[in-house]
Design brief:
Elements (H helix, E strand, L loop, with lengths): L7 H16 L5 E9 L2 E8 L5 H15 L21 E8 L5 H16 L4 E7 L4 E7 L1 H7 L3 H11 L7 E4 L2 E4 L9 H5 L2 E3 L6 E2 H4 E7 L5 E4 L2 E10 L5 H17 L6 E7 H26 L5 H24 L6 H30 L4 H31 L3 H7 L1 H18 L1 H9 L10 H23 L1 H19 L14 E8 L5 H16 L4 H4 L23 E8 L19 E8 L5 H15 L5 E7 L10 E6 L3 H16 L4 E5 L6 E8 L1 H6 L4 H12 L2 E8 L4 E8 L16 E3 L5 E3 L4 E8 L3 E4 L2 E10 L5 H13 L8 E4 L1 H9 L3 H20 L2 H8 L1 H16 L5 H30 L4 H32 L6 H29 L5
Parallel strand pairs: 5-22
Antiparallel strand pairs: 1-2, 1-26, 3-12, 3-13, 4-12, 5-10, 6-7, 8-9, 11-12, 11-15, 14-16, 14-17, 15-16, 18-27, 18-28, 19-27, 20-25, 21-22, 23-24, 26-27
Helix pairs in contact: 1-2, 3-8, 9-11, 9-30, 10-11, 10-14, 10-15, 11-12, 11-14, 11-30, 12-14, 12-15, 12-26, 12-29, 16-30, 16-31, 17-28, 17-31, 26-27, 26-29, 27-29, 27-31, 28-29, 28-31, 29-30, 29-31, 30-31
């Protein structure tokens, strides 16, 4: 809500409290934040997860309309917005000109806006960065005092003349004719000739007591691209649309627009989500191709024909899985593609196991059809059990609650649908193809690759297994020591809820001192621009020499080159339009600026972070503002990694407590950009009205307030539309000013008319005084609060700092009625992982149920599950080696690892049981099963590792840790479990059913 410049305390009393009381009665509110600032009130309502967004939005709009009558009548506007993924701009473009007037830039921006909005699939387009034109009515107060004309009469005359009342209709014969009235101003001359006064026989028009002119409103949002003056145009896409189709339509509209662009203007596409998605999908396609090649290499021991049968299962399984994914309502996005790549290394497991078993029966002399039937029958139940355990590992992630569940859900769903498809393919199509394509072997030992692999197994693994079976207890002790040692190392890894974005872009927040004028903030932003300009890539320094039809491209050259900037968009007085899903733009504020920075394509995340660190050091030397260079983060939005929320009613007490917390944070090593928003108090002017004296002179207090408002901010007396310019202008009544803004001198020239029409100077009934005022007043769930926050230096983690802070906060004495909450990353972790414990329990009990149903003994189940700690060993060591912290995606990887490990262990235990049923002794069955099943287990693990390797080497902060965890866990579990599982089998020796 925007209102004439009023102090935060007044905004809180007149607006915030009333709106909160009304909206707070709505059901299923999760949390409600409000911010009362100078002339603006912002409220953010989050409803509980799963609520119907459209329905709740309608309820909020209805309640706002209901409370409107209780709010001040002079509100500029009320904006009610619903934040969703479709609110993110898919295009941010700039119309650049250093010489064109704002009116011309606005006309071109609105022309482009209109053309984009006609494109199918576009939700809307918006324009930013230009001041609107208005009719300024500068009153001659001295002349009005001479004529005895009060301000109220001028405002009343403007409002009454600018009213159009429908005349109705008249009947003439059998036809109705509608009567148009003559109200509404049509041009500025009609406004000048508005009749103001006819008393005392003298006619006074508005032009006699005021000067009228078309002018620009006070600027509220200034925009530049690479330092050049511009206006911005953005486009948003509807939900469920294909970004490539919409992007192509938008580009066609832009091409048509550029053909009629004036010569003194340039169009530049600054940010295009369509290009970003296309490049990302191209990279995923490359990763997918590499993964398939690596999977193919791991299948060489099976032979060419067997490898072909397995490879055929890949496109079939993926096609069926994608069809199911689409029918379930999931789109193809970066996380679902990551899920497909993860599934690529897993979905061939079933086919490998079936084909390898068929090959083994063929090598024993069976015919192709008999081998296919017998091998599939022998391994079928184990394959079903393996797939069931794998699905149970991923399926609970689908039901993860809150925003974290929405964020990750498409990944496990892609894995689940694809693996289910692979189970169907492996038990039906693969045996059929095997019975037709595989050939009967002349050499029972297999091809050269298989012979080499078996030789390596018999000379290494077989001997080691024999020794381990001879000393089973010592083998388990050594394994336990290894596991305990790795767990002790695990404490060195810290926890980060969600990883940073890998995209080559970041943003810079600029917070000037409270009360700073927009022009002063602009000077600070210009200083930031001058530093950023030195990092611009050469291709983008020569924009003026490029043809208008050429869009510059710059790609990171590699070889350790530093990061280079392509575009940087400077916003003064407002945040950059929303281009990232979890960054909500700041509302208008004179003391705020934001710069959106984009780097060369394919800039690696570590190189980006080097530039961010360099800029943090350089920008810290700019005086007059707190400048924070921020990387985009994945997951739900948070104010800062370190954040302490302190609630209480008295602002002075809150300020004292916030100061103590600020000192605690500053004392912690690794913190930076510590922010205490109420640490300082700004100074405002207060007009103290002598109400007794005003009443004695016959001057209503409301007339004094109206005159002060008119002199400083001006009063809106309506608007009129110009058919010639095709624009609507507000009519602003004010007094003459030196420049765009009023100064203190204007208050010394004000007159207020009393009931008799006599003009009385303002200083006779009022006195102007300086008074302290809070910068903002914030509410959290209707309670006043403040948030002391900080960011974390590279090499440090918020978890460890928060842990130390909680120890200090526990010793802090809080007055009655005051409390603190550790917010930021700590609160986000609690919300994101609130359902993780339940999910892990569901996974464990699901695995137990499947294993008990399959083996019908608890001992066999324990033996199979014993592989889980062995995978954790490799996962932790891999995290330590790569330097990634524990994060949400790492936890997802660990849960998925449980299913993959158990899948391999089932094959070994099931085959050992079968051999014992055939009459072999315990040690003989264990030894033979270990050697025979080592080949398919090794091959399935290698294919999974091969499929995950391209994801890992991308060094993407989102999914590379997940891939590394799976790779490390597969390596350790494949190697260790081939010893531990047989040894434990010997120690427990389950009953064969």
């Amino acid at each position: 809500m925007f209102t004439p410049e009023q102090a935060p305390a007044e905004i809180e009393r007149k607006i915030t409290d009333k709106v909160e009381a009304r909206l707070g009665a709505l059901e299923n509110i999760d949390r409600m934040n409000s911010y009362s600032g100078n002339g603006v009130m912002t409220m953010i309502i989050e409803f509980k997860h799963g609520e119907d967004q459209d329905k709740k939005f309608e309820e909020v709009v209805r309640e706002i309309n209901g409370v409107r009558a209780d709010l001040p009548a002079d509100l500029y506007r009320i904006d009610v917005q619903k934040f969703s993924a479709s609110d993110v701009a898919i295009l941010q473009s700039a119309i650049i000109s250093e010489t064109a007037p704002w009116s011309a830039l606005r006309k071109q921006a609105e022309r482009l806006e209109g053309q984009i909005e006609k494109v199918p699939g576009v939700k809307g387009a918006d324009t930013y960065g230009y001041p609107k034109r208005e009719v300024r009515v500068d009153l001659n107060l001295a002349k009005m005092a001479t004529e005895g004309i009060p301000v109220g009469r001028v405002l009343g005359a403007l409002q009454s003349e600018n009213v159009s009342i429908p005349g109705g209709s008249v009947q003439l014969g059998d036809q109705l004719f509608y009567v148009e009235s003559s109200g509404d101003y049509e041009n500025i001359d009609e406004i000048r000739n508005t009749l103001v006064n006819t008393l005392s026989g003298k006619t006074v028009y508005l032009k006699d007591i005021a000067e009228l002119r078309l002018d620009y409103e006070e600027p509220r949002h200034l925009t530049r691209v690479n330092g050049h003056r511009c206006v911005l145009v953005t486009a948003k896409m509807k939900d469920g649309e294909n970004i490539f189709n919409v992007g192509a339509g938008v580009q066609s509209a832009v091409d048509v627009f550029c053909k009629k662009l004036p010569a003194n203007m340039d169009y530049q596409k600054v940010f295009d989500q369509n290009d970003s998605v296309r490049k990302r999908l191209t990279r995923f396609a490359k990763d997918f191709s590499i993964a398939i090649l690596l999977v193919l290499l791991t299948l060489l021991p099976l032979g060419g024909r067997a490898a072909l049968v397995v490879m055929i299962s890949i496109p079939l399984s993926i096609a069926i899985g994608l069809f199911a994914l689409d029918k379930l309502g999931y789109s193809l996005n970066q996380l679902s593609i990551v899920g497909l790549i993860i599934a690529l290394g897993i979905l061939v497991d079933d086919s490998i196991v079936v084909v390898e078993n068929i090959e083994r029966w063929l090598r024993e002399g069976y015919k192709r059809q008999d081998a296919a039937i017998l091998a599939t029958k022998q391994i079928g139940l184990a394959v079903v059990g393996c797939t069931a355990t794998l699905i149970l590992a991923f399926l609970p992630l689908v039901f993860l609650p809150e925003a974290s569940g929405d964020f990750i859900r498409s990944l496990p769903m892609a894995v689940v649908t694809t693996v289910l498809a692979s189970l169907f393919v492996s038990l039906t199509i693969v045996p059929f193809l095997g019975s037709r394509l595989l050939k009967e072997h002349t050499d029972p030992r297999g091809n050269i690759f298989l012979r080499g692999l078996k030789w390596a197994i018999s000379n290494t693994y077989a001997r080691l297994l024999h020794v381990a079976l001879a000393y089973p207890r010592w083998s388990m002790v050594i394994t336990a020591v290894i596991f305990a040692a790795v767990l002790s190392f695990a404490v060195r890894t810290c926890f980060a809820v969600f990883p940073a974005s890998d995209r080559p872009m970041f943003y810079i927040d600029i917070e000037a001192a409270p009360g700073t004028h927009l022009t002063a903030t602009d000077r600070i932003c210009t200083a930031v621009d001058s530093i950023l300009k030195t990092y611009v890539a050469p291709e983008f320094r020569q924009l003026a020499s490029l043809p208008d039809s050429v869009q510059p491209v710059s790609i990171y050259p590699g070889d350790g080159a530093p990061a280079r900037i392509t575009w940087y968009t400077t916003n003064v007085g407002r945040g950059n339009p929303r281009i990232y899903y979890n960054v909500i733009p700041r509302n208008e504020s004179d003391a705020y600026g934001q710069v959106f920075v984009q780097l060369q394509e394919k800039t690696p995340p570590p190189v980006k972070m080097e530039l961010i660190e360099t800029l943090r050091q350089q920008l810290s030397s700019i005086p007059g503002a707190k400048i924070n260079v921020k990387n985009f983060e994945q997951g739900p939005p948070i104010a800062a990694p370190i954040a302490i929320r302190i609630a209480g009613e008295n602002l002075d007490t809150l300020r004292s407590l916030a100061g103590q917390v600020e000192r605690m944070i500053l004392a912690k090593e690794g913190t930076r950009f510590v922010d205490n928003p109420i640490a300082t108090i700004k100074t405002d002017l207060a007009v103290q009205i002598n109400k007794e004296k005003a009443a004695a002179m016959g001057i209503p207090v409301v007339d004094i307030d109206r005159m002060i408002r008119l002199a400083i901010a001006g009063m809106n007396a309506g608007s009129f539309s110009s058919d010639e310019a095709d624009q609507t202008y507000n009519i602003i009544v004010s007094v003459p000013k030196d420049g765009a803004y009023a100064n203190l001198e204007v208050l010394n020239k004000l007159y207020i008319n009393n009931a008799n029409g006599a003009a009385v100077p303002l200083n006779q009934v009022a006195e102007v005084q300086f008074k302290p005022s809070p910068n903002t007043i914030s509410h959290y769930d209707k309670d006043r609060y403040t948030l002391v926050s900080a960011f974390v230096k590279n090499g440090y983690f918020a978890e460890s700092i928060n842990s130390a802070l909680k120890t200090d906060l526990a010793t802090m004495r809080m007055p009655d009625g005051y409390r603190y909450t550790v917010a930021g990353e700590e609160e986000s972790k609690q919300r994101s992982f609130g359902g993780m414990g339940t999910i892990i329990l569901i996974t464990i009990f699901g695995l137990l149920a499947v294993l008990i149903l399959e083996f019908k003994t608890f001992r066999s189940t324990v033996i199979v599950l014993s592989v889980i700690p062995l995978g954790i060993i490799g996962a932790v060591l891999m995290l330590l080696a790569t330097g990634y912290p524990f994060s949400f995606t790492v936890v997802v990887g660990l849960i998925a690892l449980m299913g993959i490990e158990v899948k391999n262990s089932i094959l070994l235990v099931d085959f050992t049981n079968q051999l014992r049923k055939e009459g072999r002794g315990l040690d003989e069955a264990i030894q033979e099963a270990g050697e025979i099943r080592f080949v398919p287990i090794l091959l399935t693990s290698l294919t999974a590792i091969g499929g995950l390797t391209p994801l890992a080497i991308e060094e993407n902060p989102l999914y590379s840790p997940l891939a590394y965890v799976l790779i490390g866990g597969l390596i350790s579990s494949t190697l260790l479990s081939r010893i531990v599982t047989p040894v434990l089998y010997k120690l427990l020796a389950p009953r064969v059913v």
